[in-house]
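Q: what sequence does this backbone want?
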């Protein structure tokens, strides 16, 4: 049984489009979308660590920054984060601090994933916000984009180097 609905697929497709933009710019292809309970997009993000010379410029962080700026509030209650990749520890803890409603991710990230692959940070006792996390939405498409990017990079492709 699929735990995701049609709307979830639509928003993950939008996150994939953000990831594709990141790849076009030579960044690791990760994309994120923050969506409110009304179904409106509150923030978009794509990896921009190279472009911005900022190690924190992950897709999820940039989407949260955009939404927080628009809301004029660091609390992003009621919002759902769609991310093409399992969030890293930095991004997942930012989601907890922002009090997001839910995180949905595409492909697992065995080296950096903080939602169960490497570590399950959201399950740590003592956190003052419980964050439901569901992974695997369009996982094949999300993972294939990463594999293609790094395969091209290893070959020395000028389009994704």
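A:
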């Amino acid at each position: 049984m699929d735990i995701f609905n049609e709307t979830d697929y639509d928003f993950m497709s939008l996150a994939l489009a953000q990831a594709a933009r990141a790849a076009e710019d030579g960044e690791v292809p990760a994309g994120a979308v923050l969506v409110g309970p009304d179904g409106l997009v509150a923030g978009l993000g794509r990896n921009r660590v190279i472009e911005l010379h900022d190690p924190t410029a992950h897709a999820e962080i940039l989407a949260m920054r955009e939404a927080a700026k628009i809301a004029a509030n660091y609390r992003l209650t009621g919002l759902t984060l769609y991310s093409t990749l399992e969030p890293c520890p930095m991004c997942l803890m930012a989601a907890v601090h922002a009090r997001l409603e839910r995180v949905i991710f595409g492909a697992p990230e065995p080296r950096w994933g903080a939602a169960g692959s490497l570590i399950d940070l959201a399950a740590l006792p003592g956190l003052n916000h419980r964050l439901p996390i569901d992974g695997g939405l369009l996982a094949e498409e999300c993972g294939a984009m990463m594999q293609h990017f790094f395969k091209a990079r290893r070959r020395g492709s000028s389009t994704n180097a």
